[in-house]
Design brief:
The chain is of the alpha+beta class. It has a single domain, classed as Gcn5-related N-acetyltransferase (GNAT) (Aminopeptidase, 3-Layer(aba) Sandwich), CATH 3.40.630. Helices cover 39% and strands 27% of the residues. It contains 6 helices and 7 strands. It has helices spanning 2-17, 20-30, 41-51, 113-127, 142-150, 162-172; strands spanning 34-38, 67-74, 77-87, 96-104, 132-138, 154-156, 176-182. The protein has a 7-stranded mixed β-sheet, with helices on both faces. A hairpin with a 2-residue loop joins strand 2 and strand 3 (77-87). It is globular and about 45 Å long. The relative contact order is 0.12. The mean pLDDT is 87.
Length: 187
């Protein structure tokens, strides 16, 4: 019974969050109280609790120099997360800079936090002299695709990556696609 109520409440929240008036109000009410920064060890522990509550927290503190984690807080509560991942040329088919793992907690969706987190990744990549930024998104994730298009990303085809994406799609029934933003244009 409780599981069904939670499911119903989640569906109702998602429906409300899709209404333009909710998004406008959310941005106005929350926008000034959102802070975004590179993740600290404390943030990594909070992220670990969010994504892997039963796992070993010691793994949360492992740092990879090729990855920069960004976190968003709203009123002191962890609200979202994103990663900038840097791949070397020999790490084909993933080469260059990639945006990974954009996630915003349900109560904060529609308030512009995903846009702000993505903006931080774009700014960091641009600041490091990159000319493009890639990401993967499920082709049926319409809200994410709309967000990325709004921020200047467009569908892109990477031939070396296609076999992997096609196999994943066949196995899971969900197909990911690549989107790319050119960073050498106007900000």
């Amino acid at each position: 019974m409780i599981k069904q109520l939670r499911k119903l409440a989640g569906a109702a929240l998602r429906r409300v969050q899709s209404v333009a008036l909710y998004r406008v109000a959310g941005r106005r009410l929350l926008g000034y109280r959102v802070s975004i920064h590179e993740a600290t060890d404390t943030d990594r522990l909070a992220l670990h609790q969010w994504f892997n509550p039963k796992g070993d927290p010691a793994t949360a503190l492992h740092r990879n120099p090729r990855i920069t984690d960004f976190v968003a807080y709203c009123y002191g509560h962890l609200a979202g997360f994103v990663q900038l991942v840097r791949y070397s040329p020999e790490q084909s088919p993933y080469r260059g800079y990639w945006l990974f793992s954009l996630a915003v907690k349900s109560p904060y969706k529609g308030a512009g936090i995903g846009e702000q987190l993505t903006g931080e990744v774009i700014a960091k990549a641009r600041g490091e002299g990159q000319t493009k930024l890639d990401l993967l998104v499920y082709n049926n994730n319409v809200p994410a695709i709309q967000l990325y298009r709004k921020l200047g990303f467009a569908m892109h085809f990477i031939p070396e990556l296609e076999p992997q994406l096609a196999a994943e799609g066949a196995d899971s029934g969900r197909r990911r696609v690549v989107m790319r933003k050119l960073l050498n244009g106007p900000q």
